[in-house]
Amino acid sequence: MTLLTSSIIVSINELFKFILLILTLYTARFYFRYFTRKNKVPGPLPFPFFGTMPYSYIVGQYRFLNYCYEKYGTLFEIYVGDDLNTNREIYICKPELLEKIFSSSTKSNFLLRRPNNEGMNEFGFGKSGMVVNSDLSSWRRNRMLSVPLLMNAGFLKTQVHVIQELFQEMENYWKLLHDKNDEKIILDFTSWMHRFALDVVITSSLGRSSYALKSFYNTFTQSDGTIEKNENTSSIEYDSSDLLIRQVKSFFKALLFVKHPSWLRHTFLIYYNNFYLNEIKSLNNIIENFIKLRREEILLEIKNGKNVQEDRRDIMSLFLLKYSTITDEVIRSNLIEIFIGGNETVSSSIGFIMYYLCKYPHVKNQLIDEIDVILSSNILREITFEDIEKFEYAEALIKEVTRLTPISPLIARSNVVEDELGEYTFEAGTKFYAFMIQIYKNPEYFTNPEEFNPDRFLKGSEKISRFNTLLQFGSGLRMCPGRQSAMTVIKTFLMCFFRKYDVEFADENQELKISFDVSFHCGEYKIAIKKR
Ligand code: HEM
């Protein structure tokens, strides 16, 4: 061995020892800080650098959280990295402890959903729209602009009408895809619902179709002409619709992506970082162009003496008509969040509901009976908003399905200044999660919680008296602004469907497939429908 090689080996050895020493010191310092931290909330032991993330990677995030609840009880902590302040997450599974974080006081310290981070600013989320807006003054202004429009009776009535039209369109495609002599039509239900919800949300917010149903139908068409393409749409409209659909999905994914630290996004994840940035830029431009065009159209209509207040009931037009001085950028940021808020949430909700109805035919029959009573003499007449308001069993059904398979099993909050919760004091910027599904499954709050029983939510039934035991749409000042719209969409869909059709699983052993990121998503399953 030459002198040079042996000295290289010695230096590698030295370097290795040095790295080991640094790692040992770092680890010792990390555990010293961990064991001497001020508020020792119970939770699994974190690792240096990775916090408790390795456990989630091994067993899956949702299973890991359930395990923590079983082991550490109704208040526990985990770490999504090794910074003991910014990477700490507190999980709460006790309604009493939620009162403070869901307070409706404008002076509450818990008005943030997530503390601000570099990613949110880089993607332009941190100070716009509502969902992750951490600038409280612009969030407040956006809520004050959006909530009156989303709760507006005229808008909700228009939605009832829009859903009936879209349902009819979807029904026509179903018929075209099946032989007239088929007694039963087999459908890939969740895929259809995804497209349906997208058409609903784009039509209701932009006043124009996204052709999501139509382009989905066209994927089934055959070159031999046995199933004909629906050609009533130009290819330019199709292309822009496909682009819009893709970009809305990318926007939703980017909201989750920004939680990655800046160094990771700009190195290993640089491809995704740039892809999402471009998608968002392009989506922003498309929506701002729509707004400009609509502004011009409305001005022209007013000039021609048209009653625009009556004719235009989509959210974009309502923004332009009601608030003439706000900028296109503000309208755009709110509109995009309405697509995001109302798309996957609604399609998965309907997916879960239909699953339970196929599984529990006596509940389905009770729902059908209520529809028959409400529509009484003419089952096929136009459904009105007043019909939807009377649909009480559907309301109980939606709540019970939410209790067992909530779209939002976790609801997030963060504090702007240091504050106390239970016996602990938490630094500003701590992340809290109401782990709602554990409350929903707890016999202390719901009798026989494992039982599927919508009747528990009917007036005069079981007392669900405690505060914060069912938070389908969240609570407090950040509560979902689209809740009335969502209930109107789901109830109108159920009425449109069950006044005409009966349903069962295509495969009687069908399991419910659920995936989880921050929400629960309904997996694919097939149903068989036939005329009632
Ligand atoms: C079944 C359907 C839906 C469910 C289960 C749902 C659920 C939720 C939940 C749990 C939150 C968090 C509330 C909180 O932190 O307290 C939320 C927020 C939000 N939702 Fe929904 N939602 C649905 C439909 C919609 C629709 C249709 C829209 C729009 C039209 C919408 C727009 C939003 C927005 C913008 C926020 C953020 C509000 C803020 O931070 O101030 N959601 N939703």
From TrEMBL:
<dbReference type="GO" id="GO:0016705">
    <property type="term" value="F:oxidoreductase activity, acting on paired donors, with incorporation or reduction of molecular oxygen"/>
</dbReference>
<feature type="transmembrane region" description="Helical">
    <location>
        <begin position="15"/>
        <end position="32"/>
    </location>
</feature>
<dbReference type="InterPro" id="IPR001128">
    <property type="entry name" value="Cyt_P450"/>
</dbReference>
<dbReference type="GO" id="GO:0005506">
    <property type="term" value="F:iron ion binding"/>
</dbReference>
<keyword id="KW-0472">Membrane</keyword>
<keyword id="KW-1133">Transmembrane helix</keyword>
<dbReference type="Pfam" id="PF00067">
    <property type="entry name" value="p450"/>
</dbReference>
<keyword id="KW-0560">Oxidoreductase</keyword>
<dbReference type="InterPro" id="IPR050196">
    <property type="entry name" value="Cytochrome_P450_Monoox"/>
</dbReference>
<dbReference type="InterPro" id="IPR017972">
    <property type="entry name" value="Cyt_P450_CS"/>
</dbReference>
<dbReference type="InterPro" id="IPR002401">
    <property type="entry name" value="Cyt_P450_E_grp-I"/>
</dbReference>
<keyword id="KW-0349">Heme</keyword>
<feature type="binding site" description="axial binding residue">
    <location>
        <position position="480"/>
    </location>
    <ligand>
        <name>heme</name>
    </ligand>
</feature>
<keyword id="KW-0408">Iron</keyword>
<keyword id="KW-0479">Metal-binding</keyword>
<dbReference type="InterPro" id="IPR036396">
    <property type="entry name" value="Cyt_P450_sf"/>
</dbReference>
<dbReference type="GO" id="GO:0004497">
    <property type="term" value="F:monooxygenase activity"/>
</dbReference>
<protein>
    <submittedName>
        <fullName>16018_t:CDS:1</fullName>
    </submittedName>
</protein>
<keyword id="KW-0812">Transmembrane</keyword>
<keyword id="KW-0503">Monooxygenase</keyword>
<dbReference type="GO" id="GO:0020037">
    <property type="term" value="F:heme binding"/>
</dbReference>
<comment type="similarity">
    <text>Belongs to the cytochrome P450 family.</text>
</comment>
